[in-house]
Amino acid sequence: MNAQTLVIIAGLVLLAAVIGSLIFLRGYSGKFTFDTKNGTRPKASEGEGNTSGLAYKGRFTMLTAGVGVMFGAILAKLWSMQMVRGDYYEDLSVQNRTRTVTTAAPRGRILDRNGVELVRNRALLAVTAYSDLVDDPVLVRHLSNVLGMPYAAVRRNIRDNTEGAQAQHTIATDVRRSTIAYIQEHAGEFEGVTVVDRTEREYPYGTLACHVLGYTGTITAEQLEAQDSEERDEGSIVYETGDIVGQAGVEAQYESLLQGVRGEQTVTVDAAGNVTGQVGEVPPRSGTDIRLTLDVNIQRACEEGLAYAISISKQFGYNEAGNGAMLCLDCTNGEILGMASTPTYDPSVFIGGISNDAWSQLNGEESGNPLLNRAIGGQYMSASTIKPLSALAGLEYGVYSSTRTTTCTGYWTGDGEAYGKWCWDHSGHGVMTLEDGIIYSCDPVFYDIGHDFFYDKDNPEGLQEMFRRWGLGSTTGVDLPSEQAGRVPDAAWKKEYFSDYSDEDRTWNPGDMSNIVIGQGDLLVTPLQMACAYMGIANGGKEYTPHVFLSALARDGEGGDSYRYNETGSKERLTAEVDSAYLDLVHSGLKRMIYEESATLAAHFSSLPVTVAGKSGTGEKAGQDPYGWFITYAPYENPKYVVCGVLEQGGFGGSSTVYGVRDVLGQIYNAPDSMSPTDSDRSM
Amino acid sequence: MASSSAGSLKKVNKQMSTAKGGLRSQVHLGVLIAWVGLVTFGTLVMWSASFTNPEVSFPRHLLGIAIGVAVAVVMWNIDFSNLANMSTVLLVVDIIVIFLPYVPGLSYNAMGMTGWIQIPFIHLTFQPVELAKVITVFFMASIGAQYHGKIDSFRDYLKFCGMLAVPFVCIIIQGDLGSSLVVFFSGAVTIMMSGARKEWVLSTIAVIIGLVSLILATDSIIDGIVGDANSLIKSYQMNRLLVFLDPEADTSGAGYNLQQSLIAVGSGGFFGKGIGHATQSSYGFLPESHTDFVFALLCETFGFAGALVLLALFAFLLFSVIRIAIKCESLFFRLVCVGFVGLWMFQIFENIGMCIGLMPITGIPLPFISFGSSSMIVQCIIIGIVESIWRRRQATL
């Protein structure tokens, strides 16, 4: 028995009840009538009967009033809705039928100094959905088939909240046009699935300059919070979850220039959410294109030179060689022309989110920490490349005059027989002046300087003071993130650093001086700091702030600059105040080092059309192969370029790193090195 | 008596044909103008809706009007005074009509609609309850007329109320709460106009309010015993009531329709968005925009100005019919007119009221405007009856 049957039965029962009651009423009144007066016939079709016209008039007045009140109520309500609150409802109706869709703005491109694209953008299509799509396993399965992705991966991407819980979650990027067309043609089957335009970073030169350029990634929760806490200028970019921002290198440093301003599209939709038209658009404003000081050819020469030097090191048996840095800067203005660091990484792995495995691999010890830009973040002992500064300290503080000599026997016992020290050349250099000491990198000359500073009443830390005067121990201020400051050790530092040790072990002693005066021990410098120090030597003491940013391109598309690096401010970082005669001595010593120290070394450089000055260095670290340095500047007469290289565990600087440095100079002066490398130079 | 009334009819016809003013005396111009105005306005609204709403068939609307006009002319030519003595027949016919959808072979159920019949062979679908409203008005008037304008006995009053309860309950059983309320309100107006004493009416209203409250309060218990489908108040009806009381409570479910209707009405402003620009209805935000929520569509398209025109036409119609009732010498005709006034009052107030949040949502069409031939034809029948009454206003004695 269904409900309908029940209702019919109920209806019949009711009908019976009515008929029954009518019969009952009839029995009561004798015969059935609707009339009030027994026995009289109905007079329904007759006139007003016994009721006065006045009574009716009153009732009709009531009825008319009732109708009036009804219309009055409707009118009053309509008035309040349409006339008084019309705008409110108009807004609601607009909200109903319009949706605002943000359109991503392309980031600015990054060019080299000559306008060669180092980073550009590529347009692609992505498939997105809200997280509740995961509740529809059939659709997720269908989507995974269409996209050719594993079901689990589609599920994971839909649920991934890194772009924000309420935002559309990216399921797949760079989806093929044919797949997109299929999804759009079958929009009914893919309800809740959206196709969006994206742009993505593209690196035409692959890993070239990856450490300078950096990479982009989804804005982190910390970065979003930082944005909320700091005060913003009018018109500055407001980030949202899911935005792609620079996370390293120039991408991070010049984020505010490179980031574009999102566009907004206002579209009309119907009740089912289908877009029916577009009513307004604020086009996205792409980020500013920027030009770097890098020259793509010199950058490539730095990277290839570094790779070549590593291969030479390996050839000479230094199998641990592989990590290092090479940089070239313009010493007349501080512009960085090339900056290489190995190992490299591919910045494109960060596009669309990097996997956990890839991220941990990039940060692992075994991979050599490829994300580290060793040119600014690698801290090494400077080795003998510090000797020009040590010489200047000795001269400037009157500790070691230009005419004083030291007799090198190969073993120096200035601090007593118990504390004897070897020169790198155990056979001894003989009688050495200070300039000879620079040329031949003779250690006893500098041991004497260190010894005399240690016992100098007036300037016991004059050596460290001189190092700092040239910018060691502090960051250079280069416009790249994560620069390290290095370390210039002194008595106070040692006491603090070794606070867990006995007082005796924490005390600054002559041996510490002997170490740092030849760039060993606890001294730490970055390759960029050393390059800057040599820029100062080449410039008579003046160091410019090194930088990679050259200019922001104007938006007119004609390649003009809207502004250049530090247009109004001073480009000068510091000027080391040193007597010019002393500088000339060092300057000369560095040139003669290249051409006089060894014939084989000189042969490599004599094929260049310019005169070069420079210094090798070899850092010794217990249990490891030597760290090879080589720093040069050229032309000697009117210096323009500084090239600085360091190789971790690459062997002697004069037999490994030098070949990379020489190749960079060869690229600059178009004079390739015709000599084959030798392992003969063992100077430190 | 039958011969006497037949004789008087002849006399009237003779009078009419010789009366001054000719047609003017046979057709009430006010009702005619209001009717033509309403049907024209409704046609304009349907025409504008037909561009975007695939459910609106403009030709079908015109067909409904054509049938309605034809039937109205037929009605105009019929003398209904004899119905005054046929209360029992009217009641039986009324009940039969109400339960027509349950007759096998006639019932028509499509897309969850109930209460429809399909007339065999010509495949015309029809909602009998619309016709039942008219019959009920006649039925109530035929009873009320017997009291000569004054109900002195409480027993008579109760009997009268009991008579109204029969079609009312039948329509509820048939499953159309909205129509049953229309019949109830119309009948109540008839009872009051028949001369029921005020204190009785007021105490009856009090009892009804008490009963309704009791039913609503115990609805969840009743649901538990007999199931929601068989209970007097269905859960969707309960939701509509709750949403009416608090429109913001649920904007996705039952409250969605009301919210969208309010937006449609309010966003119309003074002059409306114009034909083809009514976004709420044409993009599907406003459901049932051509039937139950047609007033919201009208307000969105034609604004406050359009609503004003519509309300003026309705008011003109109602006041004209009240005027006819006053002029009528026959108590039966007078009460028939009053019944129709009550019927229209409730339908207009309920339909417009639900669109603007004054009344809970029920599925009642707006007379002459809503899409749907059943309603259109029956409303035209009422116009024909009213004009017939006007024609025979003096034909009583």
Percentage of residues assigned to helices of chain B = 55-70%
Count of DSSP-assigned helices of chain A? 24
SSE string of chain B, helices as H and strands as E: HHHHHEEEHHHHHHHHHH
| Structural Rg of chain B | 22 Å
C-alpha geometry of chain B: globular
| Regions with little confidence, pLDDT below 50 for 5+ residues of chain A | 27-51
Count the strands of chain B?
3
* Order of strands across the main sheet of chain B: 1-2-3
* Strand tally of chain A: 23
Please bin the fraction of helical residues of chain A: 25-40%
Report the mean per-residue pLDDT of chain A as an integer: 85
The largest β sheet of chain B comes out as: 3 strands, antiparallel
Note the main sheet of chain A.
7 strands, mixed
* Alpha carbon gap, first and last residue of chain A: 106 Å
GO molecular function (chain B): lipid-linked peptidoglycan transporter activity
Keywords (chain B): Cell shape, Membrane, Transmembrane, Transmembrane helix
Membrane topology (chain B): Multi-pass membrane protein
Protein name (chain B): Rod shape-determining protein RodA
